[in-house]
Structure formats: structure tokens, C-alpha cells
């Protein structure tokens, strides 16, 4: 699903934010990427989304070589990935239903499909009864669940989440993780960047650790080292 071969990223004339990273994520995996602040986690996610170009190396996502992707192919590529961010990024003046439906409208889904699919995903995230609420009328945990509904509504094969629990208390953080685990069990590849070591340990998934731009460990299910 995702493959990085000797990838480095240097922002203008600085030390590399990422230095010679090679990693492979198979379809259907659930992977945490963790590391201290400034270690390069967000840079890694941005490279995978083709928001940034690698300074060196090759990145392949869903069979597409990002180095070779043309500018006009990028929006379509991004729409096929579900993204979740720390600050939810919902449309403030649209209600819950509209926030999720919007993601289907931009992919030119048929009205009938939108009307069928949006209530389905809102039910999955436990927000069917709040479909008319505006984001500001929801708790942080609920807003993040709307963002998750929006991320999965087009049935992506890959979800990239950058600190999805960063603004949430412990209870809501767990709810979000359990939803992501369920989405993964239904077959979607899930990559989660997080600081939250407690959650990482408890989930017992593969954990990739970045330190000062280098991949320092890659551990399967919280046990035996892999790839490194
Ligand atoms: N746009 C930029 N221009 C220059 N340097 C940058 C830029 N973005 C990030 N960096 C630098 O690259 C390094 C990695 O940053 P990155 O945001 O990827 O880290 P992170 O692990 O996601 O941190 P955090 O957990 O605090 O979000 C840091 O040294 C940061 O200062």
C-alpha cells in the first residue's frame, strides 16, 4: 500500500527533517508512527499525501509513484485517501450531514448514493441523531467522529491520521482509536501518527518510531522487531 525507499526530506537549506527512510506498509495493516516533537512524523505524512516532495528517494502509495505524479493527478490521488487531523478541519457553517456529504459531492457521487451512504457512516460513528448539528454544537470527540465519517465516506483503501487524538481527552481518544480499529478490521489500511504512547502500547499494533528524522525502530504488535 505504501512504500518508501531511501527517502530524505530537507526543508530549505536545513538539516534533513527525514533522513534515508525506507519502510513498507502492506494493504490491511494498522500502523502507528511515533516519535518526539520535531522528529519528522508530520513531514512523513505530508510526503505520503504528496503535499511535499521528497528531496531524495522514491515513494509509492496505492501503486502510484509519487515522484512521477503529474500536478493535475494530485487532487484525484488525495481524494482516494481518507485523512484525519488533530484539529478536525470541519466546515464550520455546515451541519454534520453536509460536512460528510461534501466529501462525496467533490467526487461527483450521485445524489441517491449520497443519501444512502451518509446516514450509514454517521450511524457507524454513532452520530446519526446529530446529523443537523453544526460543528460548534458538538464536543471535540464528536467533531473528530464527524471527521472520521467524512474520511471513510468514499470507502478509501487507506486512512492517514495525523495526531487524531491530540485535542481529545482520554475517553474520546479511546473511542476514536476503537473506531479506527473497526475501520481497519473492515479492510482499510490505517496509518496513525501519534505522541500518545499509552494508546500505542495498549493497541498492540505495528509501531514505527522516528527519532531526529531517522527510523529507529519498527516493531510488530508491540513485540518482535521487524525490517530494522
Ligand atoms: N515548513 C517547514 N520549513 C522548515 N522546516 C520545517 C518545516 N516543517 C517542519 N520543519 C522542521 O522539520 C522537522 C520535523 O518536523 P515535523 O513537523 O515533521 O515533526 P513532527 O514529528 O511532526 O513534530 P510534532 O510532533 O511537534 O508535530 C522539525 O525540525 C521542523 O522544525
From TrEMBL:
Keywords: ATP-binding, Cell cycle, Cell division, Cell membrane, Membrane, Nucleotide-binding
Membrane topology label: Peripheral membrane protein
Described function: Part of the ABC transporter FtsEX involved in cellular division.
Residue ranges of domain ABC transporter in the record: 2-228
GO biological process: cell division
Gene: ftsE
Assigned protein family: Belongs to the ABC transporter superfamily.
Protein name listed in UniProt: Cell division ATP-binding protein FtsE
Origin species: Shuttleworthella satelles DSM 14600
Keyword Signal: no
Record-level GO cellular component terms: plasma membrane
Entries under Pfam families matching the protein: ABC_tran
NCBIfam families for the chain: FtsE
Subcellular location: Cell membrane
Broad class of the protein's primary localization: membrane
An MF annotation (GO) of this entry: transmembrane transporter activity
Subunit and partners: Homodimer. Forms a membrane-associated complex with FtsX.
Amino acid at each position: 500500500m505504501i512504500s518508501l525507499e531511501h527517502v530524505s526530506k530537507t526543508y530549505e537549506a536545513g538539516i534533513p527533517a527525514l533522513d534515508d527512510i525506507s519502510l513498507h506498509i502492506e494493504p490491511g495493516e494498522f500502523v502507528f508512527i511515533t516519535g518526539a516533537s520535531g522528529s519528522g512524523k508530520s513531514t512523513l505524512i505530508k510526503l505520503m499525501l504528496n503535499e511535499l516532495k521528497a528531496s531524495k528517494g522514491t515513494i509509492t502509495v496505492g501503486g502510484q509513484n509519487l515522484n512521477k505524479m503529474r500536478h493535475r493527478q494530485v487532487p484525484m490521488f488525495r481524494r482516494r485517501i481518507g485523512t484525519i487531523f488533530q484539529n478536525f478541519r470541519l466546515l464550520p457553517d455546515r451541519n454534520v450531514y453536509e460536512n460528510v456529504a461534501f466529501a462525496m459531492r467533490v467526487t461527483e457521487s450521485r445524489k441517491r448514493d449520497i443519501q444512502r451512504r451518509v446516514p450509514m457512516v454517521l450511524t457507524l460513528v454513532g452520530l446519526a441523531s446529530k446529523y443537523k448539528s453544526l460543528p460548534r454544537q458538538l464536543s471535540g470527540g464528536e467533531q473528530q467522529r464527524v471527521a472520521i465519517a467524512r474520511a471513510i465516506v468514499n470507502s478509501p483503501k487507506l486512512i492517514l491520521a495525523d495526531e487524531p487524538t491530540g485535542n481529545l481527552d482520554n475517553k474520546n481518544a479511546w473511542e476514536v482509536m476503537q473506531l479506527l480499529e473497526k475501520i481497519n478490521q473492515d479492510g482499510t489500511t490505517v496509518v496513525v501518527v501519534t505522541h500518545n504512547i499509552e494508546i500505542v502500547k495498549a493497541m498492540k499494533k505495528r509501531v514505527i518510531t522516528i527519532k531526529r528524522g531517522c527510523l529507529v525502530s519498527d516493531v510488530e504488535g508491540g513485540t518482535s522487531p521487524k525490517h530494522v
